[in-house]
Structures
1.
Amino acid sequence: MTRIEFIVVTAIILFATFVLGWMASALVNRLFRVTRAEMGELEDMAQQLHDAEETRDRAVTELEEREAELVAKLSSTEAELRAAQGQLRESQAEIEELRDYIERKLARGN
């Protein structure tokens, strides 16, 4: 094999390799190409996901606001309960004092 024959054979092999690579690339692109319909579907799904995330964020915000309101109401109710319990204790002490006073007056009267 002469030098020229070797160069020609090498060139043919390289050209054949290039053509096979190009054909494989075209085949892969054709098989896995994303169509316009699929792109539209992906865009719709992305929009739905975005809307769902916004809805979730609004729901979380509303939940946090409601929780804050309930905590404030609970604190207020607990304060009212403590005040009512304090007044009840005072009333019970006053009742006991009045009973003692009445018993002393009845005991002296007899």
2.
Amino acid sequence: MAPMVEIRDARKVYDGGFEALKGVTLDIEDGEILALLGPNGAGKTTLISCICGIALPSSGAIRVGGNDVVTEYRAARDLIGLVPQEVNLEPFETVWSTVRFTRGVFGKRRDDALLEDLLKQLSLWDKRNAKIKELSGGMKRRVLIAKALSHEPKVLFLDEPTAGVDVELRRDMWRIVDGLRASGVTIILTTHYIEEAEAIADRIGVISGGQLLLVEEKAALMTRLGRKELRIDLQEPLGAVPDALAEFDLALADDGHTLVYSYDTGAERTGIARLMTEMNAAGVILKDLRTSQNTLEDIFVNLVHDDSTEETGA
């Protein structure tokens, strides 16, 4: 079965020569949630814009539901719902007319029951007759989400959908995402809230400098790149790591009161048992042990840092 979204060597070069996308290739499967992470200016929004037909790729090919976004743009666009970063709504229209108009633009038959249910899910039903200009910023964001879902898209793009919004909206948003996932909608999410990607995504993509650094299943990524840290609280502080423990590449923390040992969770042996033996032989007495696992944020920061270091030749 073909992927819902197929991207092959997509490039985007703007007037002046700036290359926002540098040959991105990616398959997004039907019904999955892909979280696309990257710093500001990484190319996330440019990639979404090219897929949604807002911008044209300079070269390469992009298909949605088997439809080329350039030569078959109407068929491709009909499958897509987009919640953009920027709030751009007609201020003097009501919530109800705004959402109903968007459904009509996509050629969908009138379905007031569906729109009523959608507005209720987004806590907008009581505001259906209010003009957009009367709404708070959070309520306007809810209208954007309602517009994106009004024509029942098969692919939903969420470009920083919860940036700067209240906790209640974020909770409503993810509840709707769970329902859409259950109904088979493909969801592509860009976010600065890495904990959200860690909580709901099936796969994680990291983009930096217009290049896709990796795309991997979340659990596999955490296993492959994640490291655990053993923090050993000491009975007496050390001024330096004893020579007898040099092979373990330990670090001192907390003014010498803690030894920090990093190890690969996927390794056959962690080396912890031998470390304890050697510490005892060296006369280093432990007080307590604590372990912590790398988070997705740690992995993301390391990947982006490594990429920027390579680009600058540092």
